[in-house]
Design a protein that fits this description.
single chain, 355 residues, alpha/beta, Rossmann fold, 7-stranded parallel sheet, globular
Length: 355
């Protein structure tokens, strides 16, 4: 039995959600592999979503992500520097600990989305590695902290054997082995129909997602909730009390079904939510944030392919939706409805069995 160790980034639930989709597809295409998932932040989500005897979970903080200002969707530069310094200080200890843990486990492949830790470990153990992402944390942090601070991250990514670049990737320092579009967990159409039936076919359904690590100040009082003949779906981290708002239950993990049921998705440019919208063929309205290189690369891809539009935070705070607003997407929006997950899994398995 081939063994894959899969390091999943700690930032939010987006990396975990798309990794769940890929792990499910890998096991669907080849049930005779074992996958060990390494992550701490989303470990419960991963455990609840991957009910397969060939999947195990090891709790370890694999990296750090963006640090945001309290009650905001914007980066906190000062706290970001502190967290990166602490991570870099602990980096070698993490590498040594994982090398000791994996040394006798007969691992065939190390997969990472997109923890730099994985590539140091793979390099030291002589195990092939694949990075799969739309960005690296080195590139993501370039505009947020001094470049010399994140030089160790670049050194780690340089040790990557293969890089599967996802939609919107614009890595200047890493040449992709292969390029793919968007992928996500598969949609359950029966669940989509059930969600739509609860709201009613005559109402527009809008998903408003700001990420599980984000909360906007005074979200309750935004004008958008007064949009006529529209029902809103919001993630469980948002406490909105309006008659036309439904909150996804905390124990409901398959949020791609809610997104697929919607007529519009309003979100920050988090790749996971964007991908689930594109795969389901749902138009996007992206809330732009300054100083987020990853966001801008995703946004550029969406605009170039007419998959969505953008709005500033200030404009979002004044936004009210109506039928006329939805009509502006009619001639603009191009629905792709394609999921790259099968092709990605196929290429990973091909490489796994070629070593």
């Amino acid at each position: 039995m081939k063994k894959i160790v899969y390091y999943v980034s700690e930032y939010g639930f987006g990396h975990a959600a798309r990794s769940i989709g890929l792990i499910r597809e890998l096991l669907k295409q080849n049930p005779d592999i074992h996958i060990e998932v390494v992550n701490r932040y989303a470990s419960n989500f991963l455990k609840d979503s991957l009910h397969n005897p060939n999947v195990t979970l090891y709790k370890l903080s694999t990296d750090i992500g963006y640090v945001l200002r309290k009650g905001s969707v914007l980066p906190d530069h000062d706290r970001q520097i502190i967290e990166i310094e602490e991570f870099i200080t602990s980096f070698q200890g993490l590498i040594e600990s994982e090398i000791k843990r994996l040394n006798n486990k007969k691992v065939d492949l190390i997969l990472s989305d997109i923890s730099p830790l994985a590539f140091e470990i793979a390099n030291r153990l002589g195990i092939p590695s694949i990075g799969i992402s739309n960005f690296t944390w080195f590139t993501a942090f370039l505009d947020l902290v001094p470049i010399e601070m994140i030089a160790p991250l670049k050194s780690s990514y340089d040790k990557m054997d293969y890089f599967f670049a996802l939609a919107g990737s614009n890595e200047q320092n890493i040449k992709p082995t292969q390029q793919f579009g968007f992928y996500s967990r598969n949609v359950d159409q029966s669940e989509v129909d059930k969600i739509r039936s609860k709201v009613g076919v005559n109402k527009k359904l809008v998903f408003l997602g700001l990420g599980m690590k984000m909360v906007l100040n005074d979200l309750q009082n935004l004008p958008i909730w007064n949009s006529p003949n529209i029902h809103f779906i919001v993630s469980s981290n948002l406490t909105i009390d309006h008659p036309n708002v439904s909150i996804i239950e905390k124990d409901y993990n398959e949020t791609q079904n809610y997104i697929a049921a919607c007529d519009l998705v309003i979100t920050k440019a988090g790749w996971g939510t964007v991908a689930e919208s594109v795969v389901a063929g749902v138009p996007l309205l992206i809330i732009e944030r300054e100083g987020m290189k990853e966001d801008q690369n995703t946004i550029n891809y969406l605009l170039e392919n007419k998959l969505g539009r953008t709005i500033s935070i200030k404009e979002f705070e004044r936004l009210v939706l109506d039928e006329e607003y939805f009509a502006t997407y009619t001639d603009y929006y191009i629905s792709l409805k394609s999921n790259a997950v099968e092709g990605i899994a196929r290429e990973i398995l091909k490489l796994t069995y070629s070593f």
